[in-house]
Each structure stands twice: as structure tokens, then as C-alpha cells.
Write a structure and sequence with these properties.
Elements: H1 26-41, E1 44-49, H2 55-64, E2 69-73, H3 76-90, H4 97-101, E3 106-111, H5 115-124, E4 126-129, E5 141-143, E6 146-147, H6 155-160, E7 165-168, E8 171-174, E9 178-181, H7 189-198, E10 203-206, E11 208-214, E12 217-220, H8 228-248, H9 257-275, H10 281-291, H11 293-300, H12 305-318, H13 322-325
Antiparallel strand pairs: 1-3, 1-11, 2-3, 4-10, 5-9, 6-8, 7-8, 11-12
Length: 345
Amino acid sequence: MTQQYDSSIPIKVSIPGQRENKVIPQRKITYGVKLKGLLDEYDECLIVTVTNVGSKQIAEMRKDFRGRARFLFGKNTMIRKVIRDYVKETGNAKLMSLMDAVQGNCGFVFTKESCAALRKEIMERKKQCAAKAGVIAPVDVFVPPGPTGMEPTQTSFFQAMNIPTRINRGQIDIEEQVHLIKEGEKVGLSEASLLIKLGIKPFYYGIKVEKIFVKGEVIDASVLDITTEQIAASFYQGLRRVAALCFTLNYPTIVNVPHSLLSAYKEALSLGLECGTYTWEGLETVKKILADPSAFAAASGGGGGGNNAANNTVAAVKEDTPEAESSVAPTGLGFGSDSSSDESS
């Protein structure tokens, strides 16, 4: 006999790990709406970490940067959930690159200003703090020698930490500088207590900018430290190497044309000196220098820029070995520059 089920009775199915009649708190809904609104409004943001940064310090920075930047912090799971829902709603898959950046005590700083300038201002806002037991020391901590202001009855505290002391005028003096905490080590309870008693606050904490989100790409914040001068210097160095290579291979390019012209002119001077029947103004100058170098040096008063160039030209004309001919590889990009010191040799 088969059992008949009444279809009018609803069947409840419970999924393990899921609560029945789950209600999303209003604060989470409000947070999601706020984050989605910021993602709509801003194309750039700084991804920051706030390890060991107090809520009061963050509140002060919110106040100082009001109107210029929007700070947003929250739980990483909630942030990832909002980003996934936002990507599904808008179809903007570029925002998925933020998922890997949401790690640790992180947050977002949304802005429409220059990320480089804003990052510099944020990184400069640091607060001096005392060393707390259990935290990782960001720097080395040294205790200077001298009076501590502590009573002689507390010498056992220093003896337990192997710190040499002496009694001087009714107080404890530290005899020599002590390397109390090493960078990267965990601060112990004794070290923290000693620094508090001595009134030393060795650590400075602030918001650190780890990465930058710019139009769908997450890049490391260290790229903002690269200046235009460094970029120009790297580009210039590359051009020098290309010019040296092309000059050595005797392959004409726009970067080695000045050096090829200079080398050809030197060869023309050398040929003119050998012929003796054909001359021009530049060759006459070279002949005068070769005839009486001391007089030319005295007239130049130690040698100006143009006279030095003439001396270099004469020296190059005198060189007739293969090694000398190959040593005129370019060192710069200016026309008429001295190419006696090069990188191709």
C-alpha cells in the first residue's frame, strides 16, 4: 500500500550550515550601498593597511582629508561580497582585480586627486606610540645610557634583562647603550614595561599605502616613487647603448648619426694632413696646433670649451691604430659631443 502525500502541505528543506529565515542586518545593507556608490563615483583609490593604527588616528585623518578623499574600512568578507554583487549587477569585470588586494587590515581611500600626492600626505601622518607586548617591532630599539630616574630598589628588574647599571645620586644609571629589541622580533612583556618606565615611545604607526587601483588595474604603490628624472635617465641610458651598438656595427640610425659625422670629420682631417695640398679653415687650425701646441695652450689660458674640443680632435687625428678607431663609440646624443670615452670598447 503506497502512502499518499497532501500537496497542500509545504515541504521545508534545511541546508546544513544555513540559518532559517536569515535576516541581513541594516548596517550591512547600508555598508554595501555605500561601497557600491563609491565604486560608481570614483575610478581610482588607494588600498591601505591600518595595522596598529587606532580608531582616533583614523578619525582625525577622515576630518583632515574631508572633501578630498573618502575613507572606507570594513570586514574583508563583506567587502568581497559587495564587490562580487556589484560586478554581477554592472558587468564590470575589472573590479574583480580588487579581490586579491583585500587582505589583512586593509581599507580603501577613494579620491579624484593625484594618487602620488595624496599617498605622500597619508604616509607622513604618523603617530608616536609606546611599545606593546606581543607586537612585531618595525625598527630596532636602543636604550641610551644615562640616568633612568628609577629608585635603587628596582635594580633587580635590570639585572633580569642583563642591562648593566650603577647607582648614582640615589637613582639607577644605565652604563652603556643597550640593543633592547631587534627589528622583526616580537616585543616581550619585560621590554615593554621597561620602555614605559623610561618614558620611551620608540614606534611610529600610520596608514600605509600598499597598492593603487587605477581604472581597473591594481598596481604596487612603489611605482609612485619613480620620478620623471629617473625615467628620462633610464631612457637616455638605453639610447646610449643602442647608439654604441649601431656605431660598432656600422649600421646608421638616427641615434648614432652625430657620432658617425664626427668620426667621418676626424678621418677627413687625418686625410687632409697626409695630402698636404688641399686645405680648409678647420684643417689650418689643426696644423697650427700641431706646429706649436704650447703657444696655443698659453693663448687659451688653460683651455676653454671650444679649444678643448680642438685638442680632442687633434688627439683623435693622431691616433691611427685600429683600437683607436673603434674607441669613438658614442657616449651622448648631442651633435659634436666628445666621443673619446665610450661604452663600446
